[in-house]
Amino acid sequence: MDKLLLVANTSFSASTFRYPLTPQDGILRGNKSWCAEFDDDMQYLEIDLKRNSHVTEIITQGAADKDAWVETYTVSYGHSGDIWKQYTENGSLKVKNT
């Protein structure tokens, strides 16, 4: 059986958010979701796992009550929150289409 890591709400932050849809709403549950204030490629949702973790899957979900969802995203990771490395496969930036 796969393990599902549930992250405490205090581990979520974002570049911006459209009130009342806060970064803490980014966890998959119910009908809430995080929504960025702006529609550009500078927006991000940051999740601090609080320890080194092996992430094997990322699941996205659109807003239940709006016609809104992420179409593409990239993944970056790091240890300190200051320095980020983009996830690549075979030396190329991995862009995920939802």
Describe this protein with a few key phrases:
mainly beta, two-stranded antiparallel ribbon, about 100 residues
Task: Write a short abstract of this structure.
With 98 residues, the protein is mainly beta. It has strands at 12-14, 45-47, 72-73, 76-77, 85-86, 88-89, 92-93, 96-97. 0% of the residues lie in helices and 18% in strands.
| Distance separating the two termini | 25 Å
Run of helices and strands: EEEEEEEE
Number of strands: 8
Structural class: mainly beta
Overall description:
With 98 residues, the protein is mainly β. Helix content is 0%, strand content 18%. The chain contains no helices and eight strands. The chain has strands spanning 12-14, 45-47, 72-73, 76-77, 85-86, 88-89, 92-93, 96-97. The strands form four sheets. A two-stranded antiparallel ribbon has the order 1-2. It has a two-stranded antiparallel sheet with strand order 3-8. It is globular, with a radius of gyration of 14 Å. The protein starts with 11 loop residues before the first strand and ends with a strand.
SSE map:
Layout: E1 12-14, E2 45-47, E3 72-73, E4 76-77, E5 85-86, E6 88-89, E7 92-93, E8 96-97
Antiparallel strand pairs: 1-2, 3-8, 4-5, 6-7
